[in-house]
Amino acid sequence: MATRPRCKTGIKVLDDELDGGIPLGNTVLVSGASGVGKTTLCMEMLANGARMDEKGVFFTATETVSKIKQYQGTYDFFDEKLLKAGQISVIDLWNISDRLGLHPERYNLEEANILFEVIRDITKELGAKRLVVDSITSLCFRLQTREMIRDFIFKLGSSLTALDCTTFLTSEVPPMVYQFSQYDIEEFIADGIIFLSDVERKGNLLRTLQVVKMRGTSHSRTKFALNMSSRNGVELEPMLKSNF
Ligand SMILES: Nc1ncnc2c1ncn2[C@@H]1O[C@H](COP(=O)(O)OP(=O)(O)OP(=O)(O)O)[C@@H](O)[C@H]1O
Ligand SMILES: [Mg+2]
Questions:
Q1: Closest Cα to atom 26, ligand 1: which residue?
Q2: How far is Cα of residue 230 from the mean position of the Cα atoms in its chain?
Q3: N or C terminus: fewer CB in 10 A for the chain?
Q4: Three-class SS of 4-59
Q5: What is the DSSP letter of 112?
Q6: Residue 146 is inside which H or E element, if any?
Q7: pLDDT per position as a tens digit, 134-182
Q8: Which residues have C-beta atoms less than 6 Å from ligand 1?
Q9: 38 CA distance to ligand 1 centroid (A)?
Q10: Nearest 5°: phi and psi at 112?
Q11: Of the bound ligands, which one is closest to the alpha carbon of residue 173?
Q12: 205 alpha carbon, closest ligand
C-alpha cells in the first residue's frame, strides 16, 4: 500500500513511532499545559527541517520574537545562522495583525479571511515546508464563533497541504487533564494530535509525550517520557525504561 511522503521531525523516537514522520501536509495540534515544551518541540522540528533544507516559518502569538530567539537560543539545535540564512523565519502574528489594521481583540469574518490569506501568502513566498502557529488557542480567542474557528483552521490546513507544507498548531490546555484543545473544535479538524503532559514521579514532574491521533499513519499510543536539555533538545524514551 502506498504511503504518503513524510515530514521527518528529526526526533528519532517520534519519527519511528510515526512510520518515518508526519504525513506531508498534515495539520498537527501540539497540545499541552503551560511549560510542557510545546514551543520547544515545534522549534526543534523547524530547526531539524531547516537542516534538511526545508524552510520553516514560526508565527508567534504568545511571546515576542526577541524572547523566542533568546529562549530558544539556549538550545544547541537553534542556530542563529538558520535565521540569518532565511531557513527559519520567526514572525510576530499580532504585529502583522496590527499592520493590517485588524481589530485588536475580535476579528469579524472578513478580518479572519485577511489574516488567513496573509499567513498563506507569506508561507508561499518563503517557500516554507513547515509552519508553526504558537498558539492557535490565542488566535482562536480572536475568532468570534465556533464556526469561524472551524473555518479558519480548515482553510489554513487545506491551503498549506496544497503547498506541501506541514502545519503545527500549539494548543494550550489546563494541567493534568486529558484535554487537547480549548474550544473542542481544533482537535477534530487537525489531522494529528501530539499530546504533551506531566506526570508526577518520585517528587519530580516528568514531562510526557503521546501521539493521540495521526491520520494516514499506523501508530501506537505509547506514552513516552520527554526530557529537554540544551545539548540534546527534546529526547524521548518509553516511560517504563526511562531514567529521566
Ligand atoms: N535550555 C533549556 N534546557 C532544558 N530545559 C529548558 C531550557 N530552557 C527552558 N527549559 C524548560 O522549558 C520550559 C519551557 O518550555 P516551552 O516554552 O517549550 O513550554 P510551552 O509548553 O511552550 O509553555 P507555554 O505554554 O508557557 O508556552 C521551561 O519551563 C524550562 O523548564
Ligand atoms: Mg510556548
A1: 34
A2: 20
A3: N
A4: CCEECCCCHHHHHHCCCCEECCCEEEEEECCCCCHHHHHHHHHHHHHHCCCCEEEE
A5: H
A6: helix 146-162
A7: 999 999 999 989 999 999 999 999 999 999 999 999 999 999 999 999 9
A8: 32, 34-40, 62, 74-75, 172, 228-230
A9: 8
A10: -60, -40
A11: 1
A12: 1
